[in-house]
């Protein structure tokens, strides 16, 4: 009840402010009407009327100023509890016109409230309380039609001057009783109109003070770009940190077992933990720097798109026209900045040697991994190599976590215009049958939703497959990376083994 009363008071306060705005306009109108009725010299009356019109027009000019639109927007946000986006450009004449429409509508609604409270309400109460006032009004302002000759508009009915001769009989159009009935009805209608104005005022504020349809589309596109970039960063954290933690955990287990039996092996495991941790810290530091820069508003659209380029990712939303520019910027340029140290400008530069190192890491912790690369890798664009590294790293991480039997085969086939990656876990697995990327993404998301909802039946018995939310996120990320290049990513069970197939089309010297 208290919240409703506060909301009602704020709406009433907005209308009262509109009434204050309308006071100069009402004063000019009253002055012009009074001058027209009281000045007998018509030329002078016309001059005063023209002067009133000029003053009225001058009073209307501020309604078209951008500062008035900004003040009205602030008023709406503070008292109507609205969030009105600001267009990312200077106000146009269309914006000024819409702002002026809201300004005049606001002033009209306030004037209606002001006139109702100050004029109509006291008059209605007086007429209801004193029937004689209603009688005088009906016989005077509202009721005379066809008065006798010589009768004045203010004379009571039938009191015509006898010397004026005979004329038409006076007729009372509205009786005193009818005036007493109509006055409260008019008051109720005005009250209903004011309530409707207060109710629809926030809607009009959003339409007239907010961005235009084109601006809303632009803002929506910018918001989609912002959400996409955050998704990109989340994916990078998932891929890099998830892999680093998995390798570190297993290397730590190796070091613990070899500590008293093979100190050389233990030292090698610790060194690998340090190296993996440094790379993870470098990538995490880069991601956090991007988040801080975005929060501070210090990164422009172009520089942020360049950072996305350094991460080697882009939007996988099909047909997203609002993201076309961001996508093209995110996939052009190719090379990655940074040298891998903490605080560097970008994540570590990746090469085919890093993909080979992934297989060596897995073998070092007791997970037999065979990497086969066929074709010439020298002509691959750097960003393609970067994506290959992340795809293979995710496949190795999933195999380390979920494979029922240690072992992974990774085959990279480099063609003239396409790279194909096929990974196969050594042990038997259960899960969805190998299918299209869309089917795999749908199954991964369904598994994630099942786990989030606590549906144990929906996720049980799917070890080694995309049944857990954690693994599904990585597989969905692989699918998105493949979609960037116009390729595909399929995963599932084939002949009892877990298979991941990725196809990345490319053209030499040109990004897809």
UniProtKB/TrEMBL annotation:
Its EC number is 2.7.13.3. It comes from the Bacteria. Residues 230-294 form the Signal transduction histidine kinase subgroup 3 dimerisation and phosphoacceptor domain. Residues 327-349 are annotated as: Disordered. It is an enzyme of class 2 (transferase). Gene3D superfamilies: 1.20.5.1930, Histidine kinase-like ATPase, C-terminal domain. InterPro entries: HATPase_C_sf, Sensor_HK_TwoCompSys, Sig_transdc_His_kin_sub3_dim/P. GO terms for molecular function: kinase activity. Pfam families: HisKA_3. It catalyses: ATP + protein L-histidine = ADP + protein N-phospho-L-histidine. The chain crosses the membrane at residues 12-33, 45-68, 100-129. Keywords: ATP-binding, Kinase, Membrane, Nucleotide-binding, Phosphoprotein, Transferase, Transmembrane, Transmembrane helix, Two-component regulatory system. This is histidine kinase. It comes from Brevibacterium sediminis.
